[in-house]
Structures are given as structure tokens and as C-alpha cells.
Amino acid sequence: MCGIAGIVRYGAPPDDARVARMQRALAHRGPDGSGLERLGAACLAHTRLALVDLAGGRQPMRTRDGRYTITYNGEVYNHGELRAELRERFDFASACDTEVVLAAYVTWGEAALARLNGMFAFFVWDAERERGFAARDRLGVKPFAYTFSDGELAFASEAKALVGPRPRAHAESILEYLSAPCFSGVEHSMFDGIDYLQPGSLLRVSRDGLELERWWDWPLDARDGGGDHAAELRARVESAVARSLRADVPVGLYLSGGLDSTLIAAVAARESRPRAFTVEFEDQGAFDYARSTIVVSDDRPFAALAAESLAVERELCLVPRAGLARDLAALAHINDALPAWEQELAQHHLAAAAARHVKAVLVGDAADETHWGYHFLLDDQATRDPAGILRRFGGVPIRREVLADPRAHFAAKYRALMAAGGARWDTPPERRRATTYLIVKRWLPRLLHNGDIHAMARSLEARVPFADVELLAAAERVPPEIGLRDGVEKWALREAARGLVPEPIRARKKSALPKDQRAQACWQQAARAALDESPLVRAFVDAAAVRALCDPARALDEAERAALFRVAALGHWAAHYEVVA
Q: Which range marks the domain in which residue 88 is found?
């Protein structure tokens, strides 16, 4: 896990000092080493978090003939198998996966991407042809932000490394964040002019300009090949977790007591003795889960049961309410795509606790999104149109003169995205497939971005076994009739976990990471301050409607508390980056 950055500029040398500043902005992603290479029309930089081949693997890395240079972020877990296949042609000097990824690209070109099983974002410069190539993994676990203007490409692992003085906000992205936070910050960054290379996409740059192309997409037309889905999923989960544990440093895991994290822990505990980390908010046992949309039960007893049953050493990370205001400001500085969920506070504290003991953690992300894990997929209204999902989670009131009907605007945008992918809405199974396509294209990349950026802020690698290529292929073949059998979300994966995890956890209904249900006063105070102090906030939100939510005498529901959290986060973000409307 690392930070990558670079500039390609034809006709004049790239600004090396600017690349060096970008590199320094990514120092938290790679405290173990750094490198910067000037290559004619290109200048590439790297910051390294060493997990494999600690002594070797310095980047940017060149081929022996000097033609190709790579700056690479990620972990390709099958690099050993690829190394064996490529050994006849290459005399490998290190044991790291970077050298293998570079050799694979030199050997197979763009076709190498389909052979890589892992998470990655990288850029390769071909000095002979003066061309650059970048690619991002299937689901977008690893980030790649870029700008392209006047023939110059600049890229970095985080948008904040590309931000200049007093950047402008990207209005559409800010509106999406306020109206549809779960799908926001994926298509475009919150900063005007800074884009994201999309998951499963590649980029080519040359004197002729920039080309973008998708090399992988979630298949809407995947067919059930028959057989025992649960048995196949179990085998794939076991191999995925085993691959994700490969490292030359200790690897831990997050343990919420949910199905996904406990299944990972159960398999990992057979391979090693990973240290586990669980987050708990103040008064968590007294929260009202009956009126919560996505946090529907208390993690604490389930996490304790998992740790005891699996004999896993576990550290409990307590989040005090007194520090929430300070934590929110930190979140908005760290997450340059803006904090979308209150649960990011849990990620923030989990990463801090884990980083004191390990350099990598296994996380359960991507399981719900790829294994029919959301109960609203069974709701015909929620799957009939994206507006149904947006209605469930609510949004921040927007000024009518800025956007009269945000829900309709973004629902139309998502429906067009789904239709472009081949979605149909004629039958319930087709609607469930279409909704899952949207979730994989927008919800999941946002979730993975949050996981990456909060972990890397602590120089911690978040590994995602459920993004394993072989496991994804098995998940694609599970039809909605089996994935949601008997009205049970994630039915096939639950069957795969039978006997591996304690039965109360295997049968537990999906519950998101916890958040502080008693943070109302904190979010009200922070939102009032954002309205008073931030011109950017006032440019977008309906100030009168938000101030009404800030009335201390008003009891807020979950969606209203979340709206104030996002207003406050927007204010902190705008102030920290000096963003103008």
C-alpha cells in the first residue's frame, strides 16, 4: 500500500517541484520510503508502506533496459504465481509484487490487467514511445485521482495532493453529496477539475491526448451455472482470506460481530492468530436500534461471541462523545471526498487503534454489495427506481434556486447509468440486478474510498478479501432468487458460513458499523457554526430548513441527524481546503 503521483507534460519539462509537493502530501500513505524519477516528459513519485519484501521494492521502479517505469499502489496477491510464469523471461531482483506487475505489463500489455488478482492503481511510463498507461482494479479499492488540462496530465492517490490554492468546488458533486451521499464522490471529485479514474478502467496518455476505457464491468447478464453455490463460495472465501494474509508484517482485522467480518476472522484464525479490533461508542448498549435504518443491533455481544468462539485476541476501541466535534473536523480534513456517513467516525478510530499494532487489516467491505446483502433489494418500491433508495436515507435540504428537485435529478442520472449498463426493470429479478449494478458502480466505490482513506491516514493498509477476483466470479453467478432466498439477504453466503461462524452471527440481520445515536447536540452545534461561517455551505443548502433542524428542542430522527453531520462536514472541508463556490 503506497502513494503514487506524477505529471506528464509534452513540449516542456514537468514541474519537478510540484511533483515533490504532491509526494509530500501523500507521506502518510508511505512512511517507509519514497522516490522521485525524472523521465523526460514524465516525472513520477512514490511513497512506500512496506508489507512485502521490506528491504527491496523501491519505487518508482524501472525495467533493466530503462524503457518502462512504474509507480504502483496496492497488493496483487497472486504475484507468486505470476512470478513463476514470467521467470523464464525476467530475472527478478526483488520479492515484491511491484516488479511482477511491471513485468506482466511489459509481457502482456493491457491484457495483464485480467491476470492480476488484488487491489491496485498504477501508472507506467514508456520512455521509448513517450506514452503513459494507468489502470485501476475492478471495484476501485485503490484510488487514482487526476487532472488533464492543456495537454498536461497530473495524477495522485488522493485528490488533496492535486489541489491548488483556493480551489473551486465541483457543484454537481457537492449537490450529490448533500442529496445522495451514499453514491457521491465516485464519478468526480469534490474539487472542480479533478476527476477519478473509474473502477475497472484504464487511461492512456500521449502527445495525441488522453484516452479512457473500461476494461471490466459488473456483469448484469451473469448466468447461474448451477451447482452448489454455497460450497463454491466457501472455498473461494477460504482461498481469498488466505491470499489476503500474505505479508512480511503482522496482519490484523476489524471484527464487528457481523457475518462478513466474523467469516473472515474464522478463516484467518486457521491460518494465523490475527489481532482483532472492535469499535464501541459511549452508551452504545442503550441506543434505540428499533428506529434505526441501517444500524439495527448492538455489535458488542456479537463481537465478543466471535472473539471467544474463534479464540481471537481482540482490542475494544471506545469512542468518547466529548471528542466527536474534534473528530468530525479531522474526518473532513482526511476525507477529501467529504465524509458521507457517520460510520466514518468508527473507521477513523478503528484505524488509529489498529495502526498501533499492525500495518494491515482485513475488512469485510464488498460482501454486501456483491452477495445480495441489502434488505431493500426485497422492496419492490426501492428497486423500481433509484429515487426509492434516496428516499430511504434522506438528504440535506437544498436551495430551490440551486436545484429544485435533487431526488428526481439524481434518480434520473442513476437510472441512465443503469440503462447504459444494460439494466432492465420488467421483472423483480431484473430490478434487483439493476439495483445491484448501481450499488457496485456507485455505493461500493464510495465505501471502498472511505475505507482506504481513513486507514491510510494512519499508514495502515485495508485489505478486502471479498474483492478477490475468484470470489467475485463466484458471486456473479449467484442469481437473486438464491442470493435472497426466503426473504433472507445474503442467503448463499450465509450458507457458506454454516459451521464456520457461531450460529447467532450467521443468522444475524445486516447491521452497519455503529454510530453515536446521541450525537444530536454535537451535530446541531457544528451545523449552526457551518451555516454562520461558511459561504460555501450557504451557497448550497437551504439555511432556514437546516436552522430548524438545529433547534435544541426538536427531537431529530436518524436521517435528520445525518443531514446535520454532512452540513458540518462540508463546512469543515471548505474551511480546511479554502474552497470557493
A: 2-164+194-214
Q: Do residues 311 and 305 lie in contact, with contact meaning Cβ atoms separated by under 8 Å?
A: no
- Whether residue 388 is contained in a domain is answered as no
In angstroms, the CA 566 to CA 395 distance is 9
Bridge pairing between strands 314-319 and 276-281: parallel
Which of the listed residues 506, 528, 544 is the one where a domain comes to its end?
506
Residue 223 pLDDT > 90, yes or no? Answer: no
Q: What is the mean pLDDT of residues 201-211?
A: 97
Q: What is the DSSP pairing of strand 201-206 with strand 42-48?
A: unpaired
pTM, to two decimals: 0.97
CA-nearest of 93, 473, 514 to 278 is 514
Query: What are the C-alpha distances in Å from 218 to residues 116, 226, 321?
Result: 17, 20, 40
Say whether 421 sits in a helix, a strand or coil.
coil
Q: By the 8 A CB rule, do 353 and 248 touch?
A: no
Q: What is the pLDDT of residues 265-296, one digit of tens each?
A: 999 999 898 999 999 999 999 999 988 888 99
Q: Is 550 helix (H, G, I), strand (E, B) or coil?
A: coil
Give the three cell numbers for residue 161: 495532493
Q: Is 132:124 a contact under the CB 8 Å cutoff?
A: yes
Three-class SS of residue 38? strand
Number of structural domains found in the chain: 3
Looking at the domain assignment, is residue 570 inside a domain?
A: yes
Give the span between the Cα atoms of 249 and 272, in whole angstroms.
Answer: 12
Mean pLDDT of 332-358: 97
Decide if 460 contacts 360 (C-beta within 8 A). Answer: yes
Residue 299 lies in a domain: yes
Q: In the predicted model, what is the mean pLDDT of residues 499-508? A: 97
Query: 460: closest CA among 288, 306, 334?
Result: 334
> In 3-state terms, what secondary structure has residue 8?
strand
**Residues 129, 9 share a domain:** yes
Residues designated catalytic = 2
CATH of the domain at 81: 3.60.20.10
CATH number for the domain harbouring residue 361: 3.40.50.620
